[in-house]
Amino acid sequence: MTVDSADLVAETPWIWRARRPEARHRLICFPHAGAGAGAYAEWAELVPSDIELVAVQLPGRQNRIAEDPATKVAPLVKVLAQALRPVFDGPFSFFGHSGGAILAYEVAKALHAKGGPQPAHLFLSAQPAPGTLHRVRRLHDLTDEELTAEVVSLGGIEQEIADDEDVMESLLETLRADFTLWENHTVAAGAPLDSPITVISGDDDPRAPLDTLQGWGELTNASFDLRLFDGGHFYFLGQAAELVDFISRTLPAPQTAGSK
Fold first, then answer.
1. Is residue 49 flagged as an active site residue?
2. β-pair type (15-18, 51-56)
3. 9-250 domain in CATH 1.10.3720.10?
4. Please, which of 19, 147, 212, 213 could form a disulfide with 132 given CB 3.0 to 4.6 Å?
5. In the chain, domain spans
6. What distance in Å separates the CA atoms of residue 39 and residue 113, rounded to the nearest whole number?
7. Which DSSP helix (H) or strand (E) runs through 107?
8. Segment 51-109, tens digit of pLDDT
9. What is the rounded CA–CA span in Å between residue 70 and residue 57?
């Protein structure tokens, strides 16, 4: 059972955190298209007591709804690499789902290029490796009706929400902006990371075909692993406890006195 749970609260425009001052490791999570930091609120109660959960908040959602969503990747990554510095003061790892996986990777790559602090581990969820995105249907240029139907079919939005025109008007704007951002982004070549990469995906995800995932292994000098869960693109919504348990067990073991 998880103990010492804490609520995930906004600390800065970019950082929501469930503080655990005695934690040995910090898990920094990047949300998927259209989602905000609150997508990881449940995880704050699921991670073990020695792991502190941090969620990235992007403009255009939740408490930043009045701001315009990001339209260019490079400035976003540059700002995040600076804005997240307060949570780089100890061992940390990244988790990102779908577009959030690309963002997590790009931030890790930027830190690596500058000789900055490195994530101990990258967990990249439901996202094809760079160079294979053409295998997946583009969504940003669909009509509102088509985009809504696609996201509902993927399991990202419940039909009850999709039927609420007022809610969907705002949500579709952010969704379309996020899909536009990532579907038009090309990952530039760079030096392989020194962080291990674990790719996680649903075994029946049309947005991340199984043969598009192995390419992530070429982007690290460290270990690479692939872990499949039952389900589609939002496999984790019904298996959050299992996913968080897997991530927690994969994180580096705590250092003990005399260890090297």
1. no
2. antiparallel
3. no
4. 212
5. 9-250
6. 29
7. helix 99-113
8. 999 999 999 999 999 999 999 999 999 999 999 999 999 999 999 999 999 999 999 99
9. 12
Tokens representing residue 180 in the block: 């536009």
Cβ 229 vs Cβ 243: under 8 Å: yes
pLDDT at 80: 97
Q: Is there a contact between 46 and 244 (Cβ–Cβ < 8 Å)?
A: yes
| CA dist 54 → 28, 62, 71, 166, 172 (Å) | 5, 16, 24, 30, 26
The residue annotated as part of the active site, out of 93, 98, 125, 201, is 98
User: 3-state class of 239 per DSSP?
Assistant: coil
Tell me the pTM.
Answer: 0.93
Q: Which residues of 152-179 are buried (b: 16+ CB within 10 A; e: fewer)?
A: eebebbeeeebeeeeebeebbbbbbbbb
Instruction: Say how many C-beta atoms besides its own lie within 10 A of residue 20's C-beta.
Output: 20
